[in-house]
Design a protein that fits this description.
With 317 residues, this protein is of the alpha/beta class. The chain has eleven helices and 14 strands.
């Protein structure tokens, strides 16, 4: 049974359709990326699934609970980080954590305090626990908001721009945490982000949406290869000559060859990278070439993302 399942999920605000008939499934322990430009409907989708707002149409279940029939239960078993962390700035970090732990039903005093310390230690906020949140930097507030979302150990976690405002070291710490929660603890995580680096490193699958509609859906590799084209093979040689170039061009797996004579490099487009690489290297060596390195150059997820948005704009203009 999927951890999250939606069918025709729709949300309208007056004449504006923010989410338009989204249907998808997210498996337990999966990191699922929701990508799209500002105003695409990402945050609205998360708010519907976390039962912060109701759908106008369609249905969804989260961890087996129907969002329309059991909204209270859904709120109890999910953790959510919104794009603008909702923290009580007049309270200290510890008071914020204590308040939300109580709200989520952590009634055992010792267990609650142990959990708060565990999270504040992890996010390097324990030494600042007695300071008011109003004095915190944006990055510190983001860390505290994520800690708050995790305080009750939710099986499903919604993260809206979790690395926004964080320095590179802190952002890496959040990515490592997401990996650990997914892989070791089997938490289901829906990740909304503008940072394609986060999606590429973390997500098992991604869905790109625009104007509330799903444009494309699949693994990062499927999106890269299907939209931006197959990977290219870069072969660096000690010395390049015409015989090597001609030998490579004649191979069945080779679609195109770009020659960089000054750097003694060949950039080769293949029909099938796995099947073609050994054949290319073997023929280069057979032609007398001395291979220094072989690298697969994959198109980035960002490149695929930008291409699919441009294509969608053209088709709907």
């Amino acid at each position: 049974m999927p951890s999250i399942e939606t069918k025709g999920l729709t949300r309208r605000f007056g004449s504006l359709t923010a989410v338009d008939s989204l249907s998808f499934e997210v498996e337990e322990g999966e990191v699922f990326g929701l990508l799209g430009p500002n105003g695409a409907g990402k945050t609205t989708t998360i708010r519907i699934l976390a039962c912060l707002i109701s759908p106008s149409q369609g249905s969804a279940t989260v961890h087996g609970y129907d969002i329309s029939r059991n909204p209270l239960k859904v709120r109890q078993i999910v953790g959510i980080l919104t794009e603008s962390p909702s923290l009580y700035e007049r309270l200290t970090a510890h008071e914020n954590m204590d308040f939300f732990a109580e709200a989520y039903g952590l009634s055992n005093a010792q267990e609650k305090q142990n959990r708060i310390r565990e999270l504040l230690d992890y996010f390097e906020l324990w030494e600042r626990r007695n300071e008011r949140v109003a004095t915190f930097s944006k990055g510190m507030k983001q860390k505290l908001a994520i800690a708050r979302a995790l305080v009750h150990k939710p099986p499903v976690l919604f993260l809206d721009e979790p690395t926004a405002g964080l320095d590179p070291e802190s952002a890496k710490g959040i990515r490592d945490l997401v990996k650990r929660l997914s892989q070791r603890e089997k938490r289901t995580i829906m990740l909304c982000t503008h940072r394609l680096e986060d999606a590429e490193k973390l997500c098992n699958r991604v869905m790109i949406i625009n104007k509330g509609k799903s444009i494309i859906f699949g693994t990062p590799d499927e999106l890269r290869d299907g939209i931006a084209g197959p990977p290219a093979l870069q072969v660096t040689l000690k010395k390049l000559n015409r015989k090597i170039i001609e030998n490579v061009k004649q191979l069945k797996q080779v679609r195109d060859v770009d020659v960089d004579s000054s750097a003694s490099k060949l950039i080769i487009l293949l029909e099938n990278a796995k099947a073609g690489i050994p054949e290319v290297v073997r023929n280069v060596v057979y032609a007398g070439g001395e291979v220094l390195s072989v690298n697969v150059l994959r198109p980035s997820l960002e490149e695929a993302y930008l291409r699919v948005l441009r294509r969608d704009q053209i088709e709907n203009s």
